[in-house]
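Model it.
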Amino acid sequence: MPLAHRSLSHGTVVFGFFNIDTDCLLLNNVFFFATDFCAWIKRWAAEGPPQQEQVPVYVISAQEDIGNLHWSFRGHDHPGFIPAVYHLYPFPAAQEDFKQQPEGWQVRDTVEPILREYAQTQNWLVKFDEDKGLVHLGEYIFDRPGFRELLDYVWRGGMPMWRDNDPPQYVREMIEAVRTSPHWPFQGMCRTY
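Modeled.
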């Protein structure tokens, strides 16, 4: 589930997976897929971070279009993107089965059209400011430790972690690129789990 993370620009922000059966991530009201996020990070770690680059994301402006997951899993018919995904992929009854599914990327063709019903596509301006040690993800600004928290979250599979503690290949490739990166925002970033 999404967790609170520290940003320099907005204070506490919510980042993470919101459903164990999809690889869709959110950062407050910005949505993107972990496959894309990991590919961006892998490329930046290997080639060096761009001073600035635009990446495509989805933005849901109205809270009612995001929806309320809590009400949905309590059985209420609640509108919005997150409840619509929950309706297709409800949480398992057994707590031990509540793990992030490494195959979540396989349902993107189902989830992305639903996301398009609620969201606008935008280009997110990503900037790496080496002099100040800052990473800008759109309007959200993180220092290196805050940025590291986001990568660690995806590496772990968020909360409740990857099923069998086995992240998908695209996550492992991202982490390996980060671990071996000589570039400033990634040096010494990834912990071992």
